[in-house]
Amino acid sequence: MSHAPFDTQAALQAVLASWAERRWLRPLDAAFADFLWREVPDAPPFLILAAALASHQLGRGHACLDLAATLQAPALALSLPPEGEEGRDVLATTEPPPLPAEVLAGWSLDRWQAALDHPLLVGCGAGDTPLVRVGPRLYLRRYWQYEQDVHRAIERRLARSATLQAALPLDILRPILDGLFPPAAAGEAGASWQKMACALAACSGFCILTGGPGTGKTTTVVRLLALLQALALAAPLAGEPPRPLRIRLAAPTGKAAARLNESIAGVVTRLSLAGFEQAEAVRAAIPVKVSTLHRLLGNRPDSRHFHHHAGHPLALDVLVIDEASMIDLEMMAAVLAALPASARLILLGDKDQLASVEAGAVLGELCRHARAGRYTPATRDWLAAASGERIDESLVDEAGSALAQTVVMLRHSYRFSAASGIGQLAEAVNAGDAVRVSEVWRHTHADLALLPLDAADETRFAALVIDGAVAGPGANPAPPAGLAQTAFRYGYRHYLTTLSEARPSSVANQNAIDDWARRVLRAHGQFQVLCALRRGPWGVASLNQRIARVLCAAALIPASAGWYPGRPVLVTRNDYGLGLMNGDIGITLALPPAADQETKLRVAFPAGDAGQGIKWILPSRLQAVETAYVLTVHKSQGSEFGHVALVLPATPSPILTRELLYTGITRARAFLTLVMPGPSRLLDVIVQRQVLRASGLLAE
Ligand SMILES: Nc1ncnc2c1ncn2[C@@H]1O[C@H](COP(=O)(O)OP(=O)(O)OP(=O)(O)O)[C@@H](O)[C@H]1O
């Protein structure tokens, strides 16, 4: 009996066709396979299979196909069958397609790699083959190139560290650092890491500050920018007059840019620069405007290319990118290409969050060893002299890479105290520790609730979405009276009543109208339902409809479909014409009628780049929006809300991973309700499942 009954062109074409028909593969993946077969009719079937799967993996965020992982656990590595189709036959009339495990049965890594040995189609480096194989990783050429470009560009920047360090005399650096981190703050847990981060970043062309929510990434980067400006103003390069550095702040999405825009001005204003020689000049030289990466690079309509690139670099000295976990490989390559060789790149982000949905989990990959530190003895000693802080010996490693010397993980959360349920839960989930997760639920926390919810339990569902209420049998545990802080536990009633009660009576005063929109948007930010999946009864589509019905039945909104006042919408595609970015959230408002006119519906969006402004858009101009009573955790990245109700599905799915749960939990600023329609052991399964993105960024 043949081990591989699918190893003929006809058999494999039938497999790929059946997968494409079921949407297990994207039309693009199947078309790629067809193209290769047309171009090279004698290509081995398992080469074509690998090519189609490499394309499929790209669609799932992997930079390449990991052949070894695919052979070891095909369903897990490929996430096939996809979400919602596990274990059931959706189209009962047709024969179920063969599973990847059946197709790959009997194949070894050696044999698969040998099948890929085809010089016309698969190369092993530079060349013009459509595919590139590096060991067990198979790439589409473009993504191999991006990975190479990113790898090399980072190495080049890291190579400047020694020169930068040598050019930075400690007698200049140390007093500035001590001024930015006065001893009182240095005594607190975590402050020393912030100080060390500034020291390391000051002498590197590339650095990463990673840390969970509220660990002080923004605070630290503002101090770092003050340090860099103070150095530039005090000790200019030989022969040059002192000039402030040209610094730009950016974020991958409009939402993330808007959030940093909101916070950074306050942090800069509050920054204590007592004792600084040119304090106000330093402060004035720290920018407070944040743009999206697309805007910074100058996107060109209908093109993958940007206005700024290696041949036309950005005119800047320092680029800070916040929420860097959302940068995909292609964007990272574009950013690095457009940066002048002398510019510094500083990435801020939470390495444990979900990565971009596009291919490449760049930040996660670069921070793979951040927890372990891996600082060399030389770094330890230099840091001790530069900052007065000592690294714990467990984080020292003689063999630490150049990259490890410029990655700093901030380890203390200033937002969540040691007693915070959200903080403890996030940590336990992040550590993949199911026992600690159940331990968290055994205690009472003022900021955490667990709500088991039956699909048919309309009353409790309504209480949650309208008033943020968590009550009834099984709701665990109710905060004791002394701890209850109901003030922040809003539901959607909060923004909907702000909408009706704060509405100006006349359209004449634009300031009053804008102010009303700002209040509604702020109130809306106090509560958000999140979920994991798109499909099924606990997916985004059904939950959105269900919530609209509940709010309509409570007379909080006038309709549950179409455009109506109160409808929150999420932008799902960048629209440069309207200045809206994928992920932006707006609220539909009925403007008060001007004389003789009808009420006009407009959607109010925070203007983002312009700070506190409001953008008013006619609903009919919004081509790519969805109702946003519920967001997927993926879409919620880069946003935070006062109270988050995180709804898990009733059954496991490959989408449910530790990173997803962690990202969902950490979207909550003040209160988290975890809604569990399924058994509590589902949490254990999720906590133990990690996203492993195939990549070779650190593999060289
Ligand atoms: N060294 C410190 N001492 C005291 N408070 C601090 C310190 N660093 C940060 N904070 C406070 O902790 C809070 C969170 O800080 P910050 O916003 O800088 O964190 P972040 O990591 O950028 O947060 P986010 O997860 O929202 O991006 C702020 O209120 C800030 O003032």
Can you give keywords for this protein?
28 helices, Arc Repressor Mutant, subunit A, alpha/beta, globular, DNA binding, single-stranded DNA helicase activity, single chain, five-stranded parallel beta sheet, 700 residues, Rossmann fold, ATP-binding, ATP binding, binds adenosine-5'-triphosphate, 39% helix, six-stranded parallel beta sheet
What's the N-to-C terminus distance?
A: 41 Å
Multimer state: single chain
Strand order of the largest sheet: 7-6-8-9-5-10
Tell me the count of domains: 3
What is the CATH topology classification name of the largest domain? Answer: Rossmann fold
Helix content: 25-40%
Summarize the structure.
This protein has 700 residues and is an alpha/beta fold. The chain contains 28 helices and 20 strands. It folds into three domains: 9-144, RecBCD complex, subunit RecD, N-terminal domain (Arc Repressor Mutant, subunit A); 171-183 and 190-234 and 244-410, 3-Layer(aba) Sandwich (Rossmann fold), CATH 3.40.50.300; 421-476 and 487-564 and 627-688, P-loop containing nucleotide triphosphate hydrolases (Rossmann fold, 3-Layer(aba) Sandwich), CATH 3.40.50.300.
